[in-house]
Amino acid sequence: MDAYKVRERIRSGQHKKTTSGLANDNVQANLVVLPKEYAFDFLLYAMRNKTPIPIIEVLEDGKFNSRYAKDSDIRTDIPFYNIYKNGELVDTVEDVKEIWQDDFVSFLIGCSFTFEDALIKANIPLKHIEENKNVAMFKTNIPTERAGVFHGNMVVSMRPIKKEFVDQAVEITSQFKDMHGGPVHIGDPSAIGITDIRTPDYGEAIEVSEDEVPVFWGCGVTPQNAILQAKPPIMISHKPGYMFITDINNEAFKDSK
Questions:
Q1: pTM of the model as a whole
Q2: Angle at alpha carbon of residue 179, lines to 165 and 191, rounded to 5°
Q3: What one-character-per-residue DSSP string does 33-59 give?
Q4: N or C terminus: which one in the chain shows less Cβ crowding within 10 Å?
Q5: pLDDT digits 0-9 by tens, 80-127
C-alpha cells in the first residue's frame, strides 16, 4: 500500500496501530507542534542536536499541509497524537483539529523507520517488526545541548541485533545521517542510564536473546522529553511509534559517499 493510501486509512480511522513496517519505501516522520513564540528556540535546539532531532520540514504558523505528502493534513494523518500542557501529558487523541491554533508551528523530524527499511532489505532481522510490536524506546543519561528553554537527555530506540549482523547494521544506518545515523551506543544499557531493558519508557518491550546485542539509536521522541523541562503551555506530538508518512523515498536521505 502506498503512502497516500496509508494516510487515507489513518485519516478515516481504519488504521490505529503503529506505522512501523507500513509504506516501507517512504520516509516516516516524528511531529512536534508548538506555539510560534517557542519555535525559534526549538529549531535551534534541533540544529544543535541533529542526531536525535533531524529536521525534515518546518510548517509555518497555522499551516498543516506538508509539501512532502500529497493532500496531507498533519492534524489528522497520524494514528494518535499526544497533547502536553505545561510539561504534562494530558490526552492522547486521534486528530487535533479541535485544538488547532493559528500560531502553531509544526516540525517534521526524521525517524529511524527509514533505516529499518534498509536493514530489512539487507536481510537483517528486526524483532519488533517480526512480533508486530512498537519499537522499544528509552530515556538515557546522554545530555543534549541546550537551546533557550529546551534541554534534557536523549531518548533512544533499541533494536536487538544478532551479533553477526551488528557491524553491518552500523554501516547501513550510518548512511542515513539525516535519519538519526549510526548507533549512539552498543551493548550494556546501564552505560547510558537504562536500568531495565525489559521496561521501555515508550513503545513495547522486546526481548534480547543470548545471540543478540542491544543496539541504540538517537530517537525523535527526544523533544517530548525536553518539553518536560521547558513546560510550554501546549505542545502536540505524535504518540511514539505512530508516525506521519511522507511521499519521500527513503533513498533520498541515503548518503551516497
A1: 0.89
A2: 60
A3: EEEHHHHHHHHHHHHH-TTT--EEEEE
A4: C
A5: 999 999 999 999 999 999 999 999 999 999 988 888 888 999 999 999
